[in-house]
Amino acid sequence: MVTPQPRLDLPELASERLRFRAVNDGDVDDIFQIYSDREALEYFAREPMQSRDDAMKMVRGNLLPSLDEKALAWAICLADSDRMIGTFTLFHIDLTNRRAEVGYILNRKFWGKGYASEALQRIIRYCFDDLEFGRLEADVDPANHGSLKLLERHGFEREGYFRRRWFMRGAWYDSVMFGLLNPAVD
Predict the structure, then answer these.
(1) Cα separation, 23 vs 77, whole angstroms
(2) Which of 29, 108, 129, 176 is the one with CA 20 to 30 A from 163?
């Protein structure tokens, strides 16, 4: 007998100052503002968006609630206004082995206010407590000191260094792989 896989849905989540909800068509302008900002994308494996149409394609193509149960993408919003300030994605979800990779980006106007830390903490709690994942992973450019510090503050450990892992903008980039184990899972 085959054991059915659990269904993965996109729940709304909340923290003290943030709300996590599905991305929708009303977020197109905020998506464009974030993903057209060359500085915000400095360590992202993508070129900045050139038009609002690019943002609409992103919303419709890969930020809708559940991507064939291999990824979940949330809009990170301010709790008191529902203004989208970033995205948080769980991807490479492996339900059989109870693990996923995390990815996040914030509008640069909201950097330095602790929102990324609060968002990461909430998603870790969701993954470990609700989904009972045993492991989370992150792939980070070694020059992205802000993200490196953020992950380490939340208990992620450096597990590997991959040279020339990404080719973008005409150059090779290295990658640091991080892992975080759920202490409640043996």
Answers:
(1) 10
(2) 108
What pLDDT shows up at residue 8? 65
Determine the residue type at 52: R
Show the tokens assigned to 17.
């100052």
Task: Please enumerate, as own/partner, the contacts of 54-60 that have beta carbons within 8 Å and a separation of 24 or more.
Answer: 55/28, 55/29, 55/31, 56/25, 56/28, 58/31, 59/23, 59/24, 59/25, 59/27, 59/28, 59/31, 60/25
Residue 120 tokens read as: 């990461």
Provide the residue range defining the domain that includes 17. Answer: 13-134
Q: Does residue 33 belong to any structural domain of this protein?
A: yes
Interval 155-173: pLDDT, tens? 999 999 999 988 877 888 8
Domains identified in the chain, total number:
1
For the entire predicted model, the pTM comes to: 0.89
Q: What are phi and psi of 65, to 5 degrees?
A: -45, -55
